[in-house]
Amino acid sequence: MVLDRVNSLLKQLQFNKSEIDIYKLLLKKGEMTVREIAEELQLSTRIVRERLKRLVKDGIVGRKLIEKGWIGYVYYAEDPDKVAQAIKRKLIEMARMIDRCSK
Q1: Burial code of 24-38, b = ≥16 C-beta within 10 A, e = fewer?
Q2: Closest to 54 measured CA to CA, from 96, 86, 7, 95
């Protein structure tokens, strides 16, 4: 039971290749739309939206609403130090969950 919970928690920390590629691209190029990211990485916009949803939720990528003749979001990479802190917080949270499961 505890091992299953640990495995589940570790899966939450894993980033797939496209998520890593999106973060690296945003670090390099700055703010981009979903369409720009999709074109650059040769991914579907659906996949990019799914990956961005998780990256935003985890604090890896940020987004802001813009109006340039259209209304939409642009995405940007969060500072690597901030990302490291977010991952550290998540690890600490997971360690606490594991402790609770093992009691």
Answers
A1: ebbeeeeebbbeebb
A2: 86
| Domains identified in the chain and CATH numbers | 2-101 (1.10.10.10)
Specify whether the CB–CB gap between 11 and 103 falls below 8 A: no
Query: Average pLDDT by consecutive 10-residue portion of the chain (103 residues)?
Result: 58 82 95 97 97 92 89 94 85 81 68
CA distance 39 to 56: 20
Asked if 6 and 91 touch (Cβ cutoff 8 Å), the reply is: no
* pTM as predicted: 0.80
